[in-house]
Amino acid sequence: MNTYKIINPFTNKSIADITYTTREEAMKAVEILEAGKKTQKNMAPFERAAILEKVAKILVRDREKIAMQITLEMGKTITDSLVEVDRAVMTFTLSAQEATRIHGEILYTDAFPPKRNRRGLVEHFPIGMVMAITPFNFPINLSAHKIGPAYAAGNTVLFKPAPQTFLSGKMLAEVCYEAGMPKDTFQIINPDIPVMGELTKHTDINCISFTGGVVAARSIAQNAGFKKLLLELGGNDPLIVMPDGDLQLAAKTAVTQRFGLAGQRCTASKKLFIHEKVYEEFKKLLIKESTNLKIGDPTLKDTFIGPVVHEGAAISIQKRIDDAVSQGATLIMGGKRDGCIIHPTILENVNDYCELVKDETFGPVIPLRKFSSVNEVLDLLKISAFGLQAGLFTNDMTVIKKFFEEIEVGALVINDGPGFRVEHFPFGGMKDSGSGREGVSYAIREMSVIKTLIF
User: Fold this and answer.
1) Options 266, 289, 354, 438, the catalytic residue
2) Cβ pair 245, 417 in contact under 8 A
């Protein structure tokens, strides 16, 4: 049988060989969940809420164990892994609360002529079966953002975690079962690419919620037909610093949001645009913040930067750095690789069209870009195919208003980085950053259908 080898990216030692779900097993899981739609239909909202609340409580109980599994599988520092589990607890708690708040509205025909004296009862119903496809970088909380709302809305859930962090996903599935999710309402699978292609075409699957890359998303979209698609496809998120911005805070934010998690966040500050009036001052502060960061063993609580997910990713990042330098970029610090560890890297004079900045680079690399006016930086941002989030350091409301009106992103964060996210805010982007919105209550709406009773 085909297997996938999970390797600890820091030690380079094998953790486990996991067997791919066969076509027969995958189709059986869909069959089970199709029958389980009746189970969900007969379950009251307060019963689903109780299950989701119990998931949150078990995650609190198993916090340390689950966090360590994340760290061993994908190299996230244990400190960040613990924060992720805590966020997942909040996501499931909010999902439990929202399960009992799903409501409709009454519309009156006589709001407009002619007089008909009728009413419309608008209600939200489960969309059916949701396939949740999740990435390696947040294997628990991003899964919670799909499983929690989907279950709260009354859907059955087909859960497909990333193979790199399948054991973390399996632990979450075991928590869901322990909390009381019937197996005919929740199934976990690990299919290979050909089987996934068949699943995305399956007519019993009503919604696909996917977080990952653009290439995979296009393949899903081609297969999906008229299924509801929720696509969170990452970003190439800018951090813009204006002359009146808090430079010290901006530098600290850039380091935290770009070098943290070894840069493997879709909302990481991937491109820094610094106004020419404060460019040199900011650069000095950024270098100061970036020195003496502890790099190495992610299981140690004082480690700030661990490895990227696997050596192939590290080699790709290093190649992008080297290519940028060959095209005229100046290396200010870093620029070297030790196995799966990319040392924190800062560059300037980077070509706007080189791969490092044109595409999403999932690693601890900061390219600095000087600009002279708001219009200039807005024009530069339009080059990007992505539009997830952006951070802007300024207190000038005129500048804030102009950016908010013109920048093509799902969220603009003022005096913070693009990595800002809370579980109940809408989350999603424009352009190649995807479609639809996560954030618990918003995801529930996306995973529901509206029916109207006119009487």
Assistant:
1) 266
2) no
